[in-house]
Amino acid sequence: MISREALVAELQECINQKDFTSIRRVIADIIRYRVNVTITPTDKVRCSSHFYLYQGMNNEFSKNDLYASFMCSRGHRSCIECLRSYLYPLIQKKGFMQRFECIACINQHIPHSQLFDQNLQLEYIRHILGNDAYEQLERALTINEEETKTDLYDQCAKCSLRQFPCQTACVNGHKLCLQCVADYITDVHKSEEKFKCLIQGCNRKLFHDTIKKLLEPNEDLISLVWNKLTIPNMRLSVCPNPQCNRRLELDVREFKETCKYCGIIICTRCTKAAHDGTSCYNQIEVLNTDALFVDLEPPKHGYPRTINEEEYINAKYSFDQFIKQDDILVKSVKLIVNRKLEEIFEQRRKQLIEEGKKEGEDWSKEKYVFHASKYENYEKICRGGFKIGGIDPGFNAVNGVAHGFGVYTATTPDFSLNYAKEGNWMMICKALPGKNGNKVNSPEELMRATHHSHLCRSPGTRYDDIQVFFTSAQVLPKYLVEFASRRE
């Protein structure tokens, strides 16, 4: 068992040195051994450099010594004696450099460290080395002012330069600069939804918060991708006030947020003006709009307590129940609300019920089906419903009519994965299969068809994974699901 005196001394040392990691460990030992301790704070701190410069010796100095506290950007402190011993030979050998590295960081192999706060570097040098050194450094910084600015940035893994701010851009740790990211976004923002790392051979997704940090000063560029970025606990939106229309970051942990520009109160769920007393779904009638997209959150208590949480569970269960690939999971869910399409869908159900009665069948049963496309097509589908290529005016059969004319859907998410272009998004729809039958090969045959859908299988599969519906009224967009691989 560790002695009480040893625990007290160790805890006191950790607190005074602000070694928070060790503090937790020592407190755990104190609780385990039920030791009563009394801590005596001290105004002394230990020099981080003494151990490396003087073969393990330690030196303490006062916390109130301005020129010996928090010298390093990572919190290492060095006493005046160590700083002089380090800087004199360094300056004699290399002259006044643009950046001095921390002694403790060098010995601990911590890269890109900076000994002084750049704005106070001259004052530190005057105090430590005297006025002569101060004047020499001042001249050096004036001559190399532009180089001093650029050298403070990390090296970009793409262009290998240090001229622009860099941020870690992917899970592999690649750091990319502002200019490289800006050039990439300019080239691909129209066709890409899943922004990928710029480094050859790295297929990882770019961190959206990195894109935001680097591009935010550029008003034109950030506006191109603002609605495509996903930040944890934040919803990037635009103020619903037409006279404002400024970009906003809404905290999804709050139900309402206030626009800092115009003062309007905003619902963080539907990003419309706050609507006390009515749900997000009723905002369609209030705002006289044709569709609404509501971001759904998973249940916070393990089981659903609100309508939004119930809808999230429905969408996730529908996806997870039919997906056959174990490494694909649901990342986020949007609920699609379109009153007009819902009314058309219910009218079609009533028609199928009447037709089924004539044959003694119940054709009112619905099922979930899946549809994937270009991301830009989803909003069009959600607002105007599905269109049948080759039948509806202005719409061609983009992927052909191998299984006849109609609205093409998949019975499992796996088949739709092949068509999820420009991002990992897929639509889950309610559908009314009605009477199943053969495919229809012409517009005329489609008009005369006595059945309502065609169930078939794609080449190489052992089960029916494609279902073609003969009217768009039979398919109702319900959820827009973002999925991801467990490896990402």
UniProtKB/TrEMBL annotation:
InterPro entries found in the cross-reference section: E3_UB_ligase_RBR (IPR031127), IBR_dom (IPR002867), Poly(ADP-ribose)pol_cat_dom (IPR012317)
A Pfam family hit: IBR
The entry's keywords: Metal-binding, Ubl conjugation pathway, Zinc, Zinc-finger
BP GO terms, sorted: protein ubiquitination
IBR domain span: 233-280
Domain called PARP catalytic: residue spans: 337-465
Molecular function (Gene Ontology), one example: ubiquitin-protein transferase activity
Top-level lineage group: Eukaryota
Protein's name according to its UniProt entry: PARP catalytic domain-containing protein
